[in-house]
Design brief:
This protein is an alpha+beta fold and 245 residues long. It contains six helices and ten strands. The chain has a five-stranded antiparallel beta sheet, with helices on one face. A five-stranded antiparallel beta sheet has the order 3-4-5-6-7. The protein starts with 19 loop residues before the first helix and ends with a helix.
Length: 245
């Protein structure tokens, strides 16, 4: 009963110094679909585990292109993720029209943080229940950024968010030192292997359940075909069986 007195809006602090609506939004990210991102010196790869609400539904897409040089994957409320994606696309288009060059991914992530912050200190609003992994390329190379419902942003070499992401993080922490020198094909293998590490027993890993996208200098952001995903799933399955033996 105590909690109900302090979770009716996002500007009421509990006696323990907590904002329950912000915590609820963070929990929505933890319960969302798994998203993985990792980068080398030349490429960023995003991979997601696409859930389907029931047997009659299609798998939900969690990766979207924002501009030719950047895209994102999100975990949490799909409606909020689409809204963030629309905002990013509008900002990227306006920047290209005004300045004649692509928007810097880090600058765009800062704009998302500012937009998210507004939702955490106005009584009539609620925090966005979505976390994003933004993959982009600028003059300094590829980058991975995380945006959170509490308006925090972070940059990573590799990261995972969403349900059961700890297993993927463990895999990434075990191999991240080799990512910088990985080829594009090796980076794809690591991304799918990280998804497999978290998905064991949750869903059947078929090509429709896994989405992979990549971006790099001279390589516009694009989703990879189902054939490429299927071959990587088969490769990581063979590797996992070899380890078990």
């Amino acid at each position: 009963m105590l909690r109900s007195q302090y979770d009716t809006d996002c500007i009421t602090w509990s006696p323990q110094g907590r904002l329950f609506q912000v915590e609820y939004a963070l929990e929505a990210v933890k319960q969302g679909s798994l998203c993985v991102a990792l980068r080398s010196q030349d490429f960023v790869v995003l991979a997601t585990l696409n859930r389907c609400p029931n047997k009659l539904a299609l798998h939900q897409q969690k990766i979207y292109q924002v501009d030719a040089h950047l895209g994102l994957a999100f975990a949490g409320l799909t409606a909020d993720g689409r809204l963030i994606t629309k905002f990013m696309r509008t900002e990227a288009l306006n920047h290209q029209y005004t300045f004649g060059n692509p928007i810097n991914p880090g600058r765009l992530v800062t704009k998302i943080a500012e937009k998210s912050q507004l939702k955490t200190h106005r009584a009539g609003k609620r925090p966005y229940g979505v976390g994003c992994l933004v993959a982009g390329v600028d003059e300094n190379g590829p980058h991975i950024y995380e945006t959170c419902p509490d308006a925090n942003t972070f940059e990573y070499v590799a990261h995972a968010i969403g349900a059961r992401c700890q297993a993927a993080k463990t895999y990434l922490e075990k191999h991240f030192e080799s990512f910088a020198t990985c080829s594009f094909d090796q980076l794809l293998t690591h991304a799918v292997a990280a998804v497999r590490a978290s998905a064991q027993g949750e869903v059947e890993l078929v090509p429709e359940a896994v989405s992979v996208a990549a971006v790099g200098p001279g390589h516009p952001f694009a989703l990879l075909s189902a054939d490429v995903v299927a071959s990587k799933l088969a490769e990581t399955q063979a590797q996992a069986m070899a380890v078990d033996l």
